[in-house]
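WARN no homologs supplied; continuing
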Amino acid sequence: MWAARRPPARPEEPNDEGIRVNDAKKTEAVFANRPGTDVQLPWLNQLNRQRLAGPAMENNRWLTAGEAPATLCVHAGTYEDPVTGAVGTPIFPSTTFRFSQSTYESFLEGYVRDIPTYSRYGNPGQWSVQLKVAAMEGAQSALVLSSGMAAIASTLFALTNRNGHIISSYDLYGGSYSLLHADISQAGRSVSYVDPLDLEAIRRAIRPQTQIMFFELLSNPLMKAIDLVAIAALCKQENILLVVDNTFLSPISCRPLEWGADIVIHSATKYLNGHSDATCGAVAGSRKLVDRVWAQLLRFGGNLDPFVCFLLERGMKTLAVRMQAHAEGARQVTRFLERHPQVTAVHSVYAEAYAHPHLRQYAPQATCGMLGFELQGGDPAALQLLEHLKLITCATSLGGIESLVSLPFNTSHSGLTREQQKQIGLNPGLVRLSVGIEAPDDLCADLEQALRQVYQGRSQP
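OK structure emitted
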């Protein structure tokens, strides 16, 4: 039986007004000292009501904001089972949970999201991994969903309405672009596509109906970095919500909420899970905004399966050490590719010619395993390269412990015309590489032998 009518708030977690809400009675006492304030329940009848962080159960592990990311990865949110003492969060496969009088009272008080009723609404396993995501991103609340696209769709639909306007990038991930171009537009929202590096173009795209700006922190696969600080300031000035996709950097490198973003989205399939064995997404932000996304999630039905919640929480425990390995591998592979005579360009945050200094402002120690490189001979040479690789696997996706390689022209950006690909900088011969955690020397050796076979017998430029 779930005895608590209200969930515990994170210790020292400020609410929307900066009030410490680790104790519900303390919060009500603060309200009681304000002239004209009615502190009588139900919660929904209070105009000055505040949302607690979470949701959470009494047995979830809370950590202070001062803990290091590596510690948060391991411990934040873990459900400490009072019966068995299990050191890991159990799996909660139950679809429904027993009601009690306190359940109905919680309904009246407005805490529908904070109690276990039916797993589409949430269950303890989901809450555990959500707390870990929230802790990592420095957020009040988080959601886990069935995929990154479920996270994006639920967020954009929840935070806009019919006749609303969205500003986004013209070189988005193909799935995100399709959502905006087809579903969002057909639902009565309009979308403007801009160069995410051109702040004046972004400013000119703003309309009175603009409700959201949606950008990727790092673009796929050219690794262009937006000016997060300037865009966040513009959004605040114009009263526009800023939604950013932090999949490529992960919260180990950057916590966008601290730099002015309102919502952070992840394809948690990638680095957060990190093992290429679970499809999932995540959303983090203020409790007020995440509650709105949660309500949309209920209608879309994109909740995360309890078994995948277990896999995601397990994967996130090693996020910090994995990102270090990804970064070291990507750094060494970048150096190798920069020296290779048949490689004409390298797109990597570790490249000597990396042209996006804004990244160092909000991610000074950027750890990322993604990079792109261009080959002499165009797409035919790139296709040959894939045939000769032995250790690196030709497959879509990214962020797993194994290195994966693909060609954007026939995978992630295949829905674009050649002219559109050229417009966003996808040149012939572009290869996308997700560097895993293998020994960097072995990865460089595999690339070396494959490139040697591609260019054997070809005349030198």
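Residues 1-44 have pLDDT under 50 and may be disordered.
OK
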